[in-house]
Specification:
It contains 3 helices and 10 strands, in the order E-E-E-E-H-E-E-E-H-E-E-E-H. The chain is α+β, with helices and mostly antiparallel strands. A hairpin with an 8-residue loop joins strand 2 and strand 3. Helix 2 crosses helix 3.
Length: 160
């Protein structure tokens, strides 16, 4: 079996074997290696819901990062998207294939949210997101592209 990053409930690790058996005493057995230790998840007939109700995530060898940044409504959106695409493509952890996704994600109260979703190797997942956040903030500041703070307007009525 090919090893790949897998998560069952809060246990995350490399899947090395998966065995599913059905019978009166055993419903399923899943063996996961995590941080050099082995964790086995299984359910007997009396506690089927524990494993059956859990979601088994098999991430494989690559994962899609999710980074977002808000920019001011008056920003040049096409130019900002182009700058961010360039930063994403220049990051050595980001895979060229599948292609990274950079797009307007939402129109929020105080900013236009840009969604950045590049694919990286599983081992690079955490570092890539941090590097992208840092490079995006630094480059937007360098280009004077505003990252607005949430603002709320308060009006006093009949103030005397």
């Amino acid at each position: 079996m090919n090893s790949s990053l897998t998560q069952l409930d809060q246990i995350k690790g490399t899947l090395i074997d998966l065995a599913i058996r059905f019978g009166p005493k055993l419903l399923a057995a899943i063996l996961i290696m995590t941080a050099g230790a082995f964790a086995a998840g299984w359910a007997g007939a009396h506690d089927r819901a524990r494993v059956v109700g859990e979601i088994l995530h098999n991430y494989g060898r690559i994962r899609q990062c999710e980074v977002s940044v808000g920019v001011a409504y008056d920003a040049d959106l096409a130019g900002t998207l182009s700058v961010i695409r360039g930063l994403v493509q220049s990051n050595p952890r980001v895979l060229a294939d599948p292609a990274p996704l950079v797009q307007i994600g939402a129109l929020a109260d105080s900013a236009v949210q840009i969604s950045i979703k590049p694919w990286v190797a599983v081992a690079d997942y955490g570092a890539a997101a941090g590097e992208l956040n840092l490079s995006i903030v630094e480059e937007l500041r360098r280009r004077d592209i505003s990252i607005p703070f949430p603002r709320h307007e308060v009006r006093l009525l009949n103030a005397a």
